[in-house]
Design goal:
Layout: E1 7-10, E2 13-16, E3 22-29, H1 41-52, E4 61-68, E5 75-86, E6 90-99, E7 102-112, E8 150-154, E9 168-175, H2 181-188, E10 208-215, H3 221-224, E11 229-239, E12 242-251, E13 256-265
Antiparallel strand pairs: 1-2, 3-5, 4-7, 4-10, 5-6, 6-7, 8-9, 9-11, 10-13, 11-12, 12-13
Helix pairs in contact: 1-2
Pfam families: 4HBT_3, 4HBT_3C
InterPro entries: ACOT8-like_C (IPR049450), Acyl-CoA_hotdog (IPR042171), HotDog_dom_sf (IPR029069), TesB_ACOT8-like_N (IPR049449)
Protein name: Thioesterase family protein
């Protein structure tokens, strides 16, 4: 376990600053980030990435995949990180979170330097009204407690549980209380309601089994702490108790900043609490 001098706190996050190829840290998961009824997946990823960055010197996080082996509950969490690979231009770190001696999540974090001259234009942002012209979607707080931490403003007329014909949701997002750029981006990557909610008219629990996030550009203070992020969540397919979502995210200047893909369980007879 890292000593107090090897841990720095950023908000509610404890981040190891050890320079060894393996480290551990004690984290606190706050109840206000509850989802189904485990903790919000993006928040869990942000906590894990905070530990992983303590083992990497200066390289930006480019991809992260997290598998949920069990629900993460409010309270203390033990994190263990291992530097699996390191070179001057890339590094890979695995992070596990445990509660009561049981591993609840496993994450792989890929760090890569920005190099190369080949450029292929990214997918453009959809044409939607600016965030200032969109209404705050407070109804999200009725679906999951963590929505109180977010400012969610739908940018189209397709809303969650509206029985729409297309399983796609588009909204402007930001945290109500600013945090570090990386924590913000990973949290927002899982902030949208499930894509299947667009075509449903009643909520059902759809907990995450796995989330992968790819960062197209390193998160910066300018684009995340003071501005909005536009997210478009599409349900690729739902059936046999499984649902797959894809989400694209752009900054206010229309630059694609991140994408996520998520595998969920659909608990049609489950409870939201």
């Amino acid at each position: 376990m890292a000593s107090p001098s090897q841990v720095r706190y950023a908000g509610s996050m404890a981040v190891s600053t050890n320079s060894e190829p393996a480290t551990s840290a004690s984290l606190l998961v706050e109840e206000e980030w509850l989802a189904w009824p485990g903790m919000h997946g993006g928040r869990v990823m942000a906590l894990s990435a905070g530990v992983a960055t303590g083992l990497v010197d200066g390289l930006p996080l480019r991809a992260m995949s997290t598998r949920f082996l069990g629900a993460v509950r409010p309270g203390p969490v033990e994190a263990a990180a291992v530097l699996d690979h390191a070179s001057r231009s890339s590094a890979t770190v695995t992070v596990s979170l445990s509660q009561d001696g049981r591993i609840t999540t496993l994450s792989t974090c890929s760090f890569t330097a920005s190099t190369g001259e080949i450029v292929v234009p990214a997918r453009p942002a959809p044409e939607v009204p600016p965030a200032e012209e969109c209404n705050d979607f407070r109804e999200a707080e009725l679906l999951y407690p963590f929505a109180r931490k977010l400012d969610i403003r739908p940018a189209t007329d397709i809303l969650p549980l509206s029985g729409a014909s297309r399983a796609e949701l588009t909204a402007w997002l930001r945290l109500r209380e600013p945090e570090s750029p990386l924590s913000t981006m990973l949290t927002l990557a899982d902030a949208m309601p499930p894509g299947v909610y667009a075509v449903l008219d009643m909520p059902v629990p759809v907990p995450s089994l796995e989330i992968s996030v790819h960062l197209h550009r390193p998160p910066t203070t300018e684009t995340l702490l003071t501005g909005w992020t536009l997210a478009q969540q599409r349900n690729v397919q739902t059936g046999a108790g499984i649902s797959i979502d894809e989400c694209d995210m752009w900054d206010e200047d229309g630059r694609l900043v991140a994408q996520s893909r998520q595998l969920r369980r659909v608990l049609e007879n489950g409870s939201l609490t």
